[in-house]
Design a protein that fits this description.
The structure holds 2 protein chains of 2 kinds. By secondary structure, chain A is α+β, with helices and mostly antiparallel strands. Chain A contains 5 helices and 6 strands; from the N terminus they run H-H-H-E-H-E-E-H-E-E-E. In chain A, the strands form 2 sheets. Chain A has a 4-stranded antiparallel β-sheet with strand order 2-3-1-4. A two-stranded antiparallel sheet of chain A has the order 5-6. The longest helix of chain A has 13 residues. The longest helix of chain B is centred in the last third of the chain and has 25 residues. Chain B is globular. In chain B, helix 3 packs across helix 10, helix 4 packs parallel to helix 10 and helix 5 packs across helix 9. Classes of the chains: A alpha+beta, B alpha/beta. The interface between A and B is medium-sized, with 17 and 31 residues.
Chain lengths: ~160, ~400
C-alpha cells in the first residue's frame, strides 16, 4: 500500500506539511500524490467525522433494507446507482442475504426521511420493498468512540 | 540512630538508577515532550483488555499453577515454535512470570553462585548489572559499538571473556541502542558460547519489533537450546507493560530450578494477566503488526531528523529506541540531556544510564505520536543550533 495512504489511515490528522516530514517528501510532492489518488478515484474526498448528537439542529438517520429486482444485463447496478444519486442517501451497499441494498439515509427531520422513503425510494420501478430502521443513538462513528472521555495521559514521563 | 547500618552491604553499594535522577527533574516540569519512555504509546488492544474483563466476570480470581495456566503455556509453545522455530514442552519447559524482569531475576538467582562471572553487553537495560550484583555474581560487561550499529560481536565477547565466566546475558534487539545481530553474528556468538561452555539468558522482548531482516533467536541454533533460557513477554509487542506478564522457556532442569525460586517468591503470575496473555497470543498478531508498521515509520523519521540535525544516529534494526551520538555538541550526554530539558522541554535519557559504554549518546524512544516527534525534532534542532552558535 502507498505509504501516504497508510499514514492517512492511521488517522493522526496530520497536516500535509507534517505528512511531508514523516514521509521525507516535499509538501508539493505530498499534494501531488494526494491529487493523483483523487484522480485514480482511490481517495474519494474528505469529510469531517462529527458527533451529530452535539449539533442542535439535529440530523435524523435511518438504515433502509431495500429489496429490488435485478435487470437482465445490468443486474442490480443501474437501480443501485439511481438510488445512490439522491442527496439524502449517504451510503449504499449491495448485500448478501435477505435483502439486496442497504441504504443509509439522513434528513433534518423524521418526516423528511419518511417522505423520502415513501415518495422517492419505494416508488421507483424495480423496488419491491423497503424496511426502514431509524438510528437512535451513536456509540462509535467511523472509528471514533463518542461517549468515552479522552483519558488524561498518566504515563510516567521517564521509564527504563 | 542511622538505620542505614541495617541494610545489606551489597544493597547499600548498589548505585541508584541513572534514570531515576533524571525522572525526578522531568516529573516536576510541565509541557515536556518525553522521548524518555520505555514503553509503547498504544494502549493494550481492546480485545485483550476485554478478555481480562471476561476472565474477572467468570470468577478467574484464584492462584494458578506455579508454572502458569497450562492453556497459556500451550499457546506460548505454539507461538514460540511458529515465530522462533523452537519447541518447548508446555508441561515442564515453560514458566510464566511477572514480566521478563522477574524471569531475569529468578534465572540469575537459580543459576549464579557467589563469584560466578556473568557476561552482558553494554549499553544495556538498566537492571542487568544490578541483578547480577544482587545474586553476588561478578558482572563482566562486553562493549558494543556504534561502528557495528551496536550489534554484539563474537570478537568483543572473546576480548572480554575471563576464565570461569559462566553465563552470557543477551538482549537482542537491545534497549537502549536498538542494536541486534544478523544471522552470521548470532551464529558466531553461539559458537563462542558452546566453546566456552556458557549458559545463555536471552531476553528477546523486542524481537517482534525487528524491522529489517528477520530475528533469529540464539536458542534456535544448533547446540544452543540445551544451554539457553529464552526470556520473552507481552509488554512491548502487545503493548502490555502494565500487565507484568512474561515467560521463560528452557531445559526442564533449568526451568525447574527457576520455578523453585518463583514459587517461594511470587507463587504465580496474576491470573487476569495470564488470561489476557492467552488472548494476545491467539488473536493479537494483526494488531501487533499494525503497531510495528507505525513504529517503523516513526523510526525512519526520527533517525533521519537526528542525522539532519547533525547528531549522528545509526538506524536501529529493532526496538523503539534511537540512540544518537551527541558528542558533536561538545557536551557530555548528561549535560546535553539536562540542557535540552531545561531549554526546550524535551526529555531524552543520557546513554550513561545504560552503562559506561553509553558515554556520548542519548536514548530517544520513538513510541510516541508523529506530532510530538516532529515537534521534538524541531526543538532539538533549535537547541543544537544554539549550542553551536555559542561555541
Amino acid at each position: 500500500m502507498n505509504p501516504l495512504i497508510k499514514l492517512l489511515l492511521e488517522g493522526g490528522g496530520l497536516s500535509t506539511g507534517q505528512m511531508a516530514q514523516v514521509l521525507n517528501l516535499s509538501e508539493a510532492e505530498v499534494n501531488r500524490q494526494l491529487d493523483q489518488l483523487k484522480k485514480d478515484r482511490l481517495l474519494l474526498g474528505w469529510r469531517p467525522v462529527l458527533n451529530l448528537a452535539e449539533e442542535e439542529a439535529g440530523v435524523v438517520r435511518a438504515v433502509i433494507e431495500v429489496r429490488i429486482t435485478p435487470e437482465r444485463g445490468g443486474g442490480f447496478n443501474r437501480l443501485a446507482e439511481r438510488i445512490s444519486r439522491f442527496d439524502e442517501v449517504e451510503s449504499c451497499y449491495l448485500m448478501s442475504g435477505g435483502y439486496d441494498l442497504l441504504v443509509f439515509v439522513n434528513g433534518s427531520s423524521l418526516q423528511k426521511v419518511a417522505g423520502f422513503v415513501s415518495e422517492k425510494l419505494s416508488t421507483l420501478e424495480g423496488v419491491l420493498s423497503t424496511a426502514t430502521h431509524f438510528l437512535l443513538r451513536t456509540y462509535k462513528e467511523q472509528g471514533f468512540l463518542l461517549d468515552v472521555k479522552v483519558a488524561e495521559n498518566d504515563r510516567l514521563k521517564i521509564t527504563p | 540512630m542511622d538505620p542505614t547500618r541495617f541494610i545489606a552491604r551489597h544493597v547499600v553499594n548498589l548505585p541508584r538508577s541513572g534514570i531515576r535522577d533524571f525522572f525526578e527533574v522531568v516529573s516536576k516540569m510541565q509541557d515536556v515532550i518525553s522521548l524518555g519512555i520505555g514503553e509503547p504509546d498504544f494502549d493494550t488492544p481492546w480485545h485483550i483488555r476485554e478478555a481480562a474483563i471476561y476472565a474477572l466476570e467468570k470468577g478467574k480470581t484464584h492462584y494458578t499453577s506455579n508454572l502458569g495456566l497450562i492453556e497459556l503455556r500451550r499457546a506460548i509453545n505454539r507461538y514460540v515454535e511458529k515465530n522462533f522455530g523452537i519447541s518447548y514442552r508446555p508441561e515442564e519447559e515453560i514458566l510464566v512470570t511477572v514480566g521478563v524482569s522477574e524471569a531475569l531475576d529468578i534465572a540469575f538467582r537459580a543459576l549464579v553462585n557467589p563469584g560466578d562471572k556473568v557476561m552482558f553487553h553494554q549499553p544495556c537495560y538498566v537492571s542487568y548489572h544490578p541483578s547480577i550484583t544482587l545474586t553476588h555474581g561478578e558482572a563482566v560487561p562486553v562493549p558494543t559499538y556504534a561502528k557495528d550499529n551496536f550489534a554484539l560481536t563474537a570478537e568483543a565477547l572473546a576480548a572480554a571473556w575471563q576464565p570461569d565466566s559462566k553465563l552470557l546475558m543477551l538482549n537482542l534487539p537491545c534497549n537502549p541502542t536498538g542494536g541486534t545481530c544478523d544471522q552470521r553474528q548470532i551464529e558466531a556468538i553461539a559458537k563462542f558460547c558452546v566453546e566456552k561452555d556458557l549458559v545463555v539468558l536471552s531476553d528477546e522482548i523486542y524481537s517482534e519489533l525487528t524491522y529489517e531482516g528477520s530475528h533469529t533467536s540464539i536458542a534456535s541454533l544448533p547446540g544452543m537450546k540445551e544451554r539457553t533460557v529464552f526470556l520473552h513477554g507481552f509488554s512491548k509487542a502487545f503493548a502490555m507493560t502494565g500487565w507484568r506478564i512474561g515467560y521463560a522457556c528452557g531445559p526442564a532442569t533449568l526451568i525447574e530450578a527457576m520455578m523453585k525460586v518463583h514459587q517461594y517468591s511470587m507463587m504465580c503470575a496474576s491470573i487476569i494477566s495470564q488470561e489476557a496473555a492467552i488472548e494476545a497470543l491467539l488473536r493479537g498478531e494483526d494488531g501487533m503488526k499494525a503497531m510495528r508498521e507505525q513504529y517503523q515509520r516513526r523510526r525512519d523519521f526520527i533517525v533521519r531528523r537526528f542525522n539532519e540535525i547533525g547528531l549522528k544516529c545509526h538506524l536501529p534494526r529493532g526496538s523503539f529506541y534511537a540512540f544518537p551520538c551527541v558528542e558533536k555538541t561538545g557536551l557530555k550526554e548528561t549535560d546535553f540531556a539536562m540542557g535540552l530539558l531545561q531549554a526546550e522541554h524535551v526529555a531524552m535519557v543520557p546513554g550513561t544510564a545504560f552503562g559506561a559504554n553509553g558515554t556520548g549518546f542519548c536514548r530517544a524512544c520513538f513510541a510516541t505520536g508523529y506530532d510530538q516527534l516532529i515537534e521534538a525534532a524541531d526543538r532539538i534542532e533549535r537547541h543544537v543550533q544554539k549550542l553551536a552558535a555559542k561555541r
